[in-house]
Amino acid sequence: MFWRIAPNSVLTQASFLAVQSLWAGPWLRDVAGLNKAAAADYLFWTAAAMVAGFLGMGQLVYRLARIGVRPITVATAGIGLFMLVQLALLLQVGPLLALWVLFGFFGTSAVLTYAILSQAFPPELAGRVNTALNLLVFVLAFAGQWGMGAIINRWPVAGGGYADTGYQLAFGLALAAQSLSWFWLLAGCRRPR
Questions:
Q1: What is the crossing angle of helices 96-106 and 71-91, to 10°?
Q2: Which domains does the chain have, with CATH numbers?
Q3: Which of 38, 39, 102, 140 is 20 to 30 A from 45 (CA-CA)?
Q4: What is the pTM for the complete model shown?
Q5: What is the pLDDT of residue 191?
């Protein structure tokens, strides 16, 4: 159960943290062409949406569980929407602020897996399960920040920024890894219990 859910949970959360905490600001400057004040506004609304996502996703799972929708279904759907938002950002399709708000909101979907996994194991193992998941998320988030930087830094431009090509490749690789692990998660969800 852990290895069916954890890869997507870890890759999704790590990608979200790597972009939101380090690379969103430079992307807004270099790719979207925003000045510092406008980029700060976008980052504020992304962070506000993230808080709303943490609160809203939990409530959504609670309410949908009462009508028979499994929490893993909500998490998987939210992660799928998060990947669509990332694709829209990569292709620069749609209103930019709305996409970053959706990025912040749906980027929280994978945290639902903490509750799902801790309930799938005996109570005496729940702490170990969450600790293992958390360790993997943070190790991969830091590695993702570094890896994205290594890719993005290969395309510097005059004036101190970076070219769109580096961001496209770095964010695209993160999205591709999430997509592969999402299909792995879907395959596991369809198996009979």
A1: 150
A2: 2-190 (1.20.1250.20)
A3: 140
A4: 0.95
A5: 57
